[in-house]
Amino acid sequence: MKKGFFRKALLNTVLGTALAAVLGVAAGASAEAGTISLGHTTWVGYGPLYLARDLGYFKEQGLDLDLQVIEEASLYMAAAASGKLSGSASTIDEILKYRSPDFCFKAVVALDESYGGDGLVVSSDITSLAQLKGKTVALNEGSTSEFWLSYVLGQNGLSLKDIEISNMSADDAAAAFIARRVPAAVTWEPNLTNVRKGNHGKVLADSSSTPGVIVDVVALGCEVIEKQPKDVAALVNGLAKANAFIKANPEKAYEIMAKGVGGYLKDPKDFAESAKGVRFYDADTNKVYLGTAAAPGPIAELIKSADATWSTLGKTRMKVDYAAMVDPAFVTAQP
């Protein structure tokens, strides 16, 4: 791929009027010392970012964190590529597809892992993954849903080539499954609960069986990491304090995070219920999961697996590995 092609193509096709309207005043924020701006979708796992912000954990260290809800990965990654955002909160498998020689970013801290929050729903007559062979599965192509299913199939001697994919969003996939238009779908909460309660079929597998595979991280532009190390450290330290607060005061934490994240999670009860499907990553978990440059943690194998999956499907811009995708220095520097 020619140098510069990805950035130009991405910005020309995606970063237009709609993106500018979504970002608003955030444009240019990533260049300001003391400010970090992140794009992300609505997800329970991003609650600690709002908790640390609203409890003042970032502000007390001189950091102003600007969080922008953008419900499309290509949009917030385009904004990060152009410098309109400092980075993103997203799954590592999702964002590595956008890494290129011209678009450098690295994960500096892990936020959470899906632990039952994502899953595969099937009709009642399907009792094993082997029975999916030749059947249609509704899922969002190019997303974490496709990567996770590829991983699960691979663990059972199958591959994506063994099924027929019907491309649609995770919510639309759930709707199509409930309407019996497809025999299987990959989706997430609260759709999994709706399937279980509505007698629409069953959840054949969920992410509780694949810990450490669907992991959200904060990834920042390499220039941001280089020029704003104190701000990055403040971000990582603030998140560590937020996770300690969650353990000590879960009900209050859910209340604050629900208000911050908003959307379908604005009710603290709904947030608390969704939180059952994730595991938040505290400081100690981060140190183990990210590891060090000399001794990479489990995230290295996840990156290797995701790179192999997306490369096979022709969706990567360059070959990536731990060194290209992770900067563990801020996590390892914590006491």
From TrEMBL:
| Residues in SsuA/THI5-like domain copies | 47-253
> What are the protein's UniProt keywords?
Signal
Q: Which residue positions does the secretion signal occupy?
A: 1-20
Query: Per the record's keyword annotation, is Signal included, yes or no?
Result: yes
One GO biological-process annotation of the entry reads: alkanesulfonate transmembrane transport
- InterPro entries in UniProt: SsuA/THI5 (IPR015168)
Cited SUPFAM superfamilies? Periplasmic binding protein-like II
Name the domain of life. Answer: Bacteria
Cellular component terms (Gene Ontology): periplasmic space
Localization terms from the record: Periplasm
On whether Signal is a keyword of this UniProt record, the answer is: yes
Concerning its family, UniProt says: Belongs to the bacterial solute-binding protein SsuA/TauA family.
Stated name of the protein:
NitT/TauT family transport system substrate-binding protein
Query: Which species is this record about?
Result: Insolitispirillum peregrinum
Give the organism's phylogenetic lineage: Bacteria, Pseudomonadati, Pseudomonadota, Alphaproteobacteria, Rhodospirillales
